[in-house]
Amino acid sequence: LDRPRALSGIQPTAGSFHLGNYLGAVRQYVALQETHDAFYMVVDLHAITVPQDPAELRANTRTAVAQLLAAGLDPDRCTLFVQSHVPEHAQLGWVMNCLTGFGEASRMTQFKDKSAKHGANQTTVGLFTYPILQVADILLYQANAVPVGEDQRQHIELTRDLAERFNTRFGDTFTVPAPHIVRETAKIYDLQDPSAKMSKSASTAKGLINLLDEPKVSAKKIKSAVTDTDTVIRFDAEEKPGVSNLLTIYATLTGTTIADLEQKYEGKGYGALKTDLAEVMVDWVTPFRARTQEYLDDPETLDAVLAKGAEKARAVAAETLAQAYEKVGF
Ligand code: ADP
Ligand code: NA
């Protein structure tokens, strides 16, 4: 197998993925399974860095897996698993903790943002060290490619630094992931505030499309999306962020280009664009929801997918961990 390795993790924190998760991340996972030896995991270890309800976390983890399958991940063409099913993540995470400077960890800007959001009483050491667990997540699979958003760039730099540090100190062990791992994918904005990205934590209900909501609810949100007082349907992220966001969603969901859409809607109003996009949305999301539900209604199949995924993941992770343990003197 000389296909490059890819590794990506997705949080199970919300029951439903939102449209930004799908168009910005999951869609790319589906494409990458054709070109890469791809490992995808639902990162439940990361989910407990902030307070969780156990029953909710368990259910959300399964719902995340069901949605990944519904979106097109194929367990025969990729390795799909739940992070806590592979104990090597926590084990290598500890080794990496012991290789990271306290000052170095303190410079992670995501921690500053997240701890500010959760407040001192709910800020755990786990939240502080989660980027180091993420380093272990990547290095365990000797991944070359890590499809993540721009907000994760600093963590990938940390991964490179720690991989190089380990290799220098103990001998060649880890693949150093490529520096340009951040691929530009569609970025989706809040439908009510197109200057902010669509986000489960920051968007208002009307600005956020949850993939598992009733399709007619999502259609309504598209139809009431904020646009502008002009009437021309043209992509201009600066001057016309609302319309541009709708064009991005439309083009990405249908596989057309923005130029084609601009041509199609020349001389037509925003109403026509929104009505059509609402229909596109309903047509896409209806079978997606049905497929997700099928997986959730068949727990044995889902368990079998996850057992097989964990087994495939552990085969790689255990080998890397054994090498690392041996190198550090265990
Ligand atoms: P959120 O930002 O809503 O908390 P996550 O941080 O769990 O979502 O993101 C999961 C994945 O989805 C990441 O790869 C992230 O880059 C991507 N993603 C999240 N929001 C968007 C968005 N609005 N547009 C494009 N991609 C997004
Ligand atoms: Na985020």
UniProtKB/TrEMBL annotation:
In which residues is ATP bound?
Q11, P12, T13, G20, N21, G149, E150, D151, I188, K197, M198, S199, K200, S201
User: Which Gene Ontology BP terms does the record give?
Assistant: tryptophanyl-tRNA aminoacylation
In short, the EC number is 6.1.1.2
Q: Which UniProt keywords apply?
A: Aminoacyl-tRNA synthetase, ATP-binding, Cytoplasm, Ligase, Nucleotide-binding, Protein biosynthesis
EC class (word): ligase
SUPFAM superfamilies on file? Nucleotidylyl transferase
**Pfam families registered for this protein in UniProt:** tRNA-synt_1b
Q: Where does L-tryptophan bind?
A: D137
Q: Where in the cell is it found?
A: Cytoplasm
Can you list the GO cellular component terms from the UniProt entry?
Answer: cytosol
**Residue ranges for motif 'KMSKS' region?**
197-201
Gene Ontology MF terms in the entry: ATP binding; tryptophan-tRNA ligase activity
**Tree of life domain:** Bacteria
Q: Which reaction does it catalyse?
A: tRNA(Trp) + L-tryptophan + ATP = L-tryptophyl-tRNA(Trp) + AMP + diphosphate + H(+)
Question: Where does this chain mainly localize?
Answer: cytoplasm
Q: Give the similarity note.
A: Belongs to the class-I aminoacyl-tRNA synthetase family.
Describe its partners and assembly state: Homodimer.
Which NCBIfam families does the entry link to? trpS (TIGR00233)
So what does this one do? Catalyzes the attachment of tryptophan to tRNA(Trp).
Instruction: Provide the protein name.
Output: Tryptophan--tRNA ligase
- What species was this sequence derived from? Streptomyces albireticuli
Lineage here is:
Bacteria, Bacillati, Actinomycetota, Actinomycetes, Kitasatosporales
What would be the name of the gene that encodes this protein?
Answer: trpS
